[in-house]
UniProtKB/TrEMBL annotation:
<dbReference type="Pfam" id="PF13561">
    <property type="entry name" value="adh_short_C2"/>
</dbReference>
<dbReference type="GO" id="GO:0016491">
    <property type="term" value="F:oxidoreductase activity"/>
</dbReference>
<comment type="similarity">
    <text>Belongs to the short-chain dehydrogenases/reductases (SDR) family.</text>
</comment>
<dbReference type="InterPro" id="IPR057326">
    <property type="entry name" value="KR_dom"/>
</dbReference>
<dbReference type="InterPro" id="IPR002347">
    <property type="entry name" value="SDR_fam"/>
</dbReference>
<dbReference type="InterPro" id="IPR036291">
    <property type="entry name" value="NAD(P)-bd_dom_sf"/>
</dbReference>
<protein>
    <submittedName>
        <fullName>NAD(P)-dependent dehydrogenase (Short-subunit alcohol dehydrogenase family)</fullName>
    </submittedName>
</protein>
<keyword id="KW-0560">Oxidoreductase</keyword>
<feature type="domain" description="Ketoreductase">
    <location>
        <begin position="7"/>
        <end position="186"/>
    </location>
</feature>
<dbReference type="InterPro" id="IPR020904">
    <property type="entry name" value="Sc_DH/Rdtase_CS"/>
</dbReference>
Amino acid sequence: MSSLTGKVALVTGGSRGIGAAIAKRLAADGADVALTYVNAEKAAASIVRAITESGGKALAVHADGAKPEDIEAAVSATVDAFGRIDILVNNAGIFRAAPIEALSTADFDATFAVNVRAAFVATRAALSVMPDGGRIISIGSNLAVRAPSPGLSLYTASKAAIAGLSQAFARELGPRGITVNTVHPGSTNTDMNPEDGPHAEDQRTLMASNQGFADPSEVADIVAYLASPAARSVTGAAWTIDNGANA
């Protein structure tokens, strides 16, 4: 029996990159998986198809992380399809980088709406349908710990807020046996930040290890562990996978 057999997971922003890798890994470990997308409908359908063709169950739900009602509807759709939510992965996020003077109030509001408020809304909605012993895992960033270059103020602040939320949630939900953790990826080879992209070499120079960019599956491996029964004593923690960029 796989470690997540009989469990139900909701992965926000699960149509591509790290989110897609997480959705596929949780499904491979036996979970029924719902994933949300905003614009990448075909990519989301492809992930669902890959999971179902491997014998799993999956559902793609359109949900804009900037709209609380969409997030709440995605939770409801997951429950309608699979009965409950055992694992919530807050992965959806946006990245807006610019000097402070070039950032608008709208940029601030959009960044915190998707990167922070959405995780709060999803967690609040999921708790009413999450059994005791559930798992909440939020995807932060190693940039929450250190901003190595200019222009990262909004993203860094939003991901630091995610880590703070997770710590507070862990304390609050501990009596129910619900664990809450953050995973901080560093440079990861995705379509948004490819290992052969224009800024890749600058990112490599920050790394203590010569392993280069992580593969999304490596981040998914950590999420899968935190979602599993083996991690029942891990809560309020932040796991960084960045080849020592913040060492």
